[in-house]
């Protein structure tokens, strides 16, 4: 099955062909090949990054609606990935320093403030006698490690974000969302998660509302362990009501540079 999309002015080609294969786990009657023309608002015309984002949104929505998964992408279509550790390596590290006891206590307090359920286990995560190391990286990214393993990270002075190694050890202490099966490949390539991947059959949002900018772990239909960590771009209520656009900005995912990092 192929879809042909027209690009707004500013894109590098006239059209993009995307070849898709039906998800065998969700059989539906075959439909004819379609040719779609995508119309973009004036605010997005002439902006390559906006065009890429709009195309990513459109392709994901069509995949979700028809239960399709992409098998090849031809032309200039770019399912842009924004996860900060996609190409992370030791070369991105600027310096390392031991964290003082007073700063360590402050980091513990910040973790508990962000994730209140963690309070009973925070001393297991950062033991009093353990040496926490601050690893300063390019782009104002900070890693906090114990025995060479990343426990959490931070961009500039923003919120602390748990690593997947920590999430897999203490999954019950972090807010979580679940994507449907069709979003898994997108997540594991570092793509942001669209709202429709969080509201369709197989996906799950928590009963208790979560607000915009909440750090969440990303589970997936049929998977035992979390695939990624991200940040809500809108509240869970808005995700359900709007059901369009990006719902979770991906920060860290299985297989990225941070997952592979060890001192």
Supply database-style keywords.
single chain, about 260 residues, five-stranded antiparallel β-sheet, five-stranded mixed β-sheet, disordered N terminus
Walk me through the topology.
Elements: E1 2-6, E2 15-22, H1 48-66, E3 68-74, E4 93-98, H2 101-114, H3 122-125, E5 132-137, E6 141-146, E7 149-155, E8 161-162, H4 164-169, E9 176-179, H5 184-187, E10 193-194, H6 196-199, E11 215-220, E12 228-232, H7 236-242, E13 246-253, H8 257-260
Parallel strand pairs: 9-11
Antiparallel strand pairs: 1-2, 2-3, 4-5, 5-6, 6-7, 7-8, 10-13, 11-12, 12-13
Task: Write up this protein.
The protein has 263 residues and is an alpha+beta fold. It folds into two domains: 1-80, no CATH class; 81-263, Sulfate adenylyltransferase, CATH 3.10.400. It contains eight helices and 13 strands. It has helices at 48-66, 101-114, 122-125, 164-169, 184-187, 196-199, 236-242, 257-260, and strands at 2-6, 15-22, 68-74, 93-98, 132-137, 141-146, 149-155, 161-162, 176-179, 193-194, 215-220, 228-232, 246-253. The protein has a five-stranded antiparallel beta sheet with strand order 4-5-6-7-8. The protein has a five-stranded mixed beta sheet with strand order 9-11-12-13-10. The protein has a three-stranded antiparallel beta sheet with strand order 1-2-3, covered by helices on one side. Residues 1-53 and 65-81 have low confidence and may be disordered.
């Amino acid at each position: 099955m192929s879809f042909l999309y027209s690009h707004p002015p500013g894109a590098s080609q006239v059209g993009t062909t995307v070849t898709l294969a039906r998800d065998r786990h969700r059989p539906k009657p075959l439909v004819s090949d379609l040719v779609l023309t995508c119309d973009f608002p004036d605010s997005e015309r002439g902006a390559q990054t906006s065009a890429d984002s709009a195309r990513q949104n459109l392709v994901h929505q069509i995949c979700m609606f028809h239960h399709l998964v992409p098998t090849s992408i031809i032309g200039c279509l770019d399912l842009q990935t924004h996860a900060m550790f996609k190409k992370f390596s030791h070369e991105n590290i600027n310096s390392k320093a031991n964290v003082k006891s007073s700063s360590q206590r402050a980091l513990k307090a910040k973790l508990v403030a962000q994730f209140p359920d963690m309070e009973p286990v925070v001393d297991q995560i950062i033991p009093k006698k353990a040496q926490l190391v601050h690893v300063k990286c390019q782009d104002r990214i900070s890693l906090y490690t114990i025995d060479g393993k990343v426990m959490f990270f931070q961009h500039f002075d923003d919120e602390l974000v748990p690593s997947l190694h920590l999430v897999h050890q203490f999954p019950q202490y972090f807010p979580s969302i679940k994507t449907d099966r069709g979003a898994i490949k997108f997540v594991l390539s570092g793509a942001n998660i669209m709202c429709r991947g969080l509201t369709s059959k197989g996906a799950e949002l928590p009963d208790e509302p979560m607000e915009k900018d909440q750090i969440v772990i990303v589970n997936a239909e049929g998977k035992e362990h979390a695939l990624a960590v991200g940040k809500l771009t809108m509240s869970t209520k808005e995700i359900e009501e709007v059901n369009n656009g990006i719902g979770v900005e991906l920060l860290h995912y299985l297989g990225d540079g941070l997952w592979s990092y060890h001192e």
